[in-house]
Amino acid sequence: MIGFNAPREAGTRTTRADEAPLPEASASDAPFLAAFRASAAPMVMTDPALPDNPIVFTNDAFCRLTGYAADEVIGRNCRFLQGPDTDPSVIARVRDAVTRGEPLRVDLLNYRKDGHPFWNDMTLTPVRDEAGIVRSYFAVLTDVTRTRQAERALAREKDGLAHDLEARNRSLQAALDQQTALLHEVDHRVKNNLQVISSLVLLKARRARDPACRDVLRSMADRIGALATAHRLLYSVSDVARFDLRDFATDFAADLEAGLDSDRIALSVDVAAVAVPASMAAPLALLVHELAVNAVRHGFPGERSGRVAITARAEDERLILDIRDDGVGMPAEPDNPEGFGRDLVGMLVRQLRGSLTFEDLSPGTRAYVVLPLGTGHSGSRR
């Protein structure tokens, strides 16, 4: 193996002016020294037995990389390659590895003779003798300046892209916030206008002399009120793209119960917190209103008592709406030929692309509605 005292050249050139000349290389070391000199990889060897662990051998590739001549390198500690921007913590790692006699690979900033910096990917290897004692250190240098420059350019580009992306996200968020505020304002105004219209219709109903006309006007006012409730809920939530059916059912049930004789008709509501697309809000609110009100008004004539149950849940991207009562059931023909409740329900179900089934429960009636929620439905809210 190459010993720690391998000379730079054959002969007796000294490492320092005040030190003894380095011994000649042994004949067995000659092939290794020849390979060392001829290697395209910059290499140096240091001798930890000499003061300050100086370089005792180098090759031409090292001289070409650093710009130093061989006689300017031999006898000096490798720290002469350090400069103002060399990281002290990396130097400390090298020093610690030498102290411990351990191999190390680090990237450190070194400087050529002309002062130009270069990034050095250095592999430091301790060379031990048969007894395991470190006799020399063998360092291979690799100029990775271009790689480091490319990494820095890539990092700058990445930072620039991140900055641009952040700016675009801020711009998009501002636009989204503006759109959300606009939609909230629209829902708020629509709700207010619907409430005004409902009040006008009720006022007209109170002044109508024909009982049938009064009933029609009140029914219309109730339907308009259901639409107003839907827009009020759209206005009050942060997600303008979703409508919570449970919130609507809770408000609607409270209004419906207020007009019921609680001793005669009981109302139960079991509606899951299904977030449906906002585009379904108005027709769905009107559909729930129409089916529930019809069950209450037509299922219990006279003094007949019973109960009405409203249930809804999401299942496999579908909304299942079930409204049933234990009243007299649905007549074969509507009592009021001028009424359009069934026609309205059918139109709403078609608009929502769903299906509607009426079932005779004997006693009572069940309205079973299945509506598609569309791709991307988020399901029930927790």
TrEMBL record:
EC number, UniProt record: 2.7.13.3
Enzyme class: transferase
Positions of region (Disordered): 1-24
GO molecular-function term, one example from the UniProt record: photoreceptor activity
SMART domains attached to this UniProt entry: HATPase_c, HWE_HK, PAC, PAS
Catalytic activity: ATP + protein L-histidine = ADP + protein N-phospho-L-histidine
InterPro entries, per database record: HATPase_C_sf, HATPase_dom, His_kinase_dom, PAC, PAS, PAS-assoc_C, PAS-like_dom_sf, Sig_transdc_His_kin_sub2_dim/P
Domain PAS: 28-101
Top-level taxon of origin: Bacteria
Transmembrane portions of the chain: none
Domain Histidine kinase, residue spans: 185-375
Every PAC domain range: 102-156
CDD domains per record: HATPase, PAS
Keyword list, A-Z: ATP-binding, Chromophore, Flavoprotein, FMN, Kinase, Nucleotide-binding, Phosphoprotein, Photoreceptor protein, Receptor, Repeat, Sensory transduction, Transferase, Virulence
Protein name (Swiss-Prot/TrEMBL): Blue-light-activated histidine kinase
SUPFAM superfamilies found in the cross-reference section: ATPase domain of HSP90 chaperone/DNA topoisomerase II/histidine kinase (SSF55874), PYP-like sensor domain (PAS domain) (SSF55785)
